[in-house]
Amino acid sequence: MQPMVEEPSRVDTLSFSVIGLVYLFTLVYGLMLRGGRADRVAAVMQVVGDLLIASVLVFLTGVGDSPFTFLYLLAVIGASMLLDGRGALLAAGAGAIAYASLLVAVKLQWLEPPLGVGDVSRQRLAFLLGSNVLALFLIAALAGYLTRQLSATGGRLSEREADLKKLDHLQRQILACMPSGLITCDEGGRVTFVNRAASAILSLEGRLSPGSHVDALLPGVLEREVRQRRRELTVQTPSGLRILGLTVTALEAGGGGGTLVVFQDLTELRRIEEDLKRADRLAALGTLAAQLAHEIRNPLASMRGSAQLLVQEPGGDPTSAKLVEILLRESDRLSKLVEDFLRFARPPPPVKQALELEVLVAETVDMLRVDPLASQVGVEMALAPMRVPVDADQLRQVLINILRNAFQAAGPGGRVRVTLEAADELALLRIWDSGGRIPATDLSRIFEPFFSTREGGTGLGLSTAYSIVRAHGGNIRVSSSPQEGTEFLIQLPVQG
């Protein structure tokens, strides 16, 4: 027959509930103390309270026969959590004193437990004292050791966490300060990261939606033949065409872990290269023009002199005299053409004078309004007041050449806009027309002499404008597309 198992009484259930609640508070308080949200005085009071509760429960349940003597051990463990190893030893000592006091008081019948207690012999008293005190101090030592190890491990983890945070912050700073654009995408080509430089180069502010495909930003960048090889890519952005030098690299061996794209904006570099090439061509042309003009002028002078002698001869044939007059007139025209060509190839240095640039621009635009080319073209002006040192006659020639081209490109019903603004010690003069008829293949050659896409054009107007602007220490740019129109940007230094 199996022995009967006695069910816990209501008092027992209540006791265990109180114990669980108290030590739950101890655990929560320990976490608060570790987090710096509680002080040590309150922690000491908590440990003292735990020892008092343990002593009361041990006394009420028979002291030596009490099943709650383990509560002293829990109090010691709680003290190690709240007050480190030294606090655990002090709690163990206090618990040993409290338990020994209860045993002695019951042995001497100073106290009588409510549930009663049998006779405690000296041997049993010594055993209870020895075993419980030894257990208390062993638990205190073990708990203290574990607490120190836990604290040391926690300290190392905190240091590692701090190092990781510093490393993460440094990585973010490096990515944010990189002058090169950086884009990463997953295996499917969806963009996972874009740094600040890439956003600025591609003008992505506010238009990059989550899950965007990298081909929408850099068309054709994931083609296999461009991987692991540097190449150039022309991309249309909201701020215009950009020439990018990029490198595409797989993030993992075999290309299964996404793709890294690093690129630089080469637009300005390519423009500078084109400017240098154009300047070299113009310099070579100037040398050739000077030599050619010298070689043509001398024969022309001899021919004109001889023709004048023929005219002065008395009794000459009238037909011959008429032919000589034609020869003189055409030689004068040829001489003037040579001088004009020489003036283009080697324009005179500008005579700069500080003047109100917006007034000069407005006067030139108003003068050209009567041009038949501008009769049905809408003209807009937005000119900021600026005082700039320029040669008025030369700059007016530049404006006339570009504006007439703009009127012809816009055509009847088209629009032309002229704006003037300041930026970074420069005067920015923009002449825009709605035509946008310059092919992309011709943009790099548009300032070359004798290059013209217009029937009957000499190809010297824009070349002359370019030479004049460069002689002023400025620069001239052009962009054109059927969607955006054509814009000439003239940059002139504000300081002479």
TrEMBL record:
It comes from the Bacteria. CDD domains: HATPase, HisKA. Its EC number is 2.7.13.3. It catalyses: ATP + protein L-histidine = ADP + protein N-phospho-L-histidine. It holds the Pfam family HATPase_c. SMART domains: HATPase_c, HisKA, PAS. Keywords: ATP-binding, Kinase, Membrane, Nucleotide-binding, Phosphoprotein, Transferase, Transmembrane, Transmembrane helix, Two-component regulatory system. The keyword ATP-binding applies. The keyword Nucleotide-binding applies. Residues 291-496 form the Histidine kinase domain. It is an enzyme of class 2 (transferase). One of its GO terms (molecular function) is ATP binding. The chain crosses the membrane at residues 14-33, 66-83, 88-106, 126-146. This is histidine kinase.
